[in-house]
Amino acid sequence: MALSWSGRRQLMYYGVGLIILLVVVYAVWVSFFNTPPTCSDGKQDGTELGVDCGGSCALLCQDTAHDPTVLWARPFQTGANTYTAAAYIQNNNLGAGAKSVQYSFQLFDDTNSLVKEIDGTTDLPPVPVVPIIAPNISVGNRTVTHVQFAFAAAPAWYKIPAKSLPTLFVSQQNLAGDGSRLSATISNQTLFDAKNVTVAAVLFDSQGVARAASKSLVQVIPAQSASQVVFTWPIGTPDIVRAEITVLPSF
Prior knowledge:
Elements (H helix, E strand, L loop, with lengths): L4 H29 L35 E9 L4 E9 L5 E13 L5 E11 L4 E10 L7 E6 L5 E3 L8 E8 L5 E8 L5 E12 L4 E12 L3 E8 L7 E9 L3
Antiparallel strand pairs: 1-2, 2-5, 3-4, 3-6, 3-7, 8-9, 9-12, 10-11, 10-13
């Protein structure tokens, strides 16, 4: 029996309603059961090698990231009662950096008694060697002979795209004969300003032993421009034959 006009219209409404219901059900299913993987969903999915790490995620997994290596740590006397503590840290994760890493310097005297402990926080940029320098440490009338450096915990390493970092070069180094003054030019060859650039300087003697260290923060090096940095030490050091300047970009 043929449907009446009102019956056909009612059937059409039911059909449209059913289509709308199916669309809503499909959208809910996609939202709750077919969500694309992200690096912050608390589970291992997509190309991840662990939970929210590895693969396409910026965070390196702890079991694949390499711990940094402390190449050396030394104290340098800068005044009658003050020292600078410095350490060279090797970044063993190519193209990766770590933010806000807590560390400590422990300063000891010749009887191996603790003179002072200094805690700090630093970033580890994606460069091969990162100098960490703590200046102006007051020790009273104590004499410091050696220092130990350690991280409070394993750093969390993130992949840093090379294109996001400024291209910075060091040139025109000029070291005073007694090691009391060092100047250099830092050139920014990228098309964007380099901000909050830390420049570290370490002086070495003829035996390759570090004898002095200092650091300077350059607020901004404009794009396609250069800035001069100057380091001075109140106590001149003889037998200085080499200065090593490391530029640590903010990331």
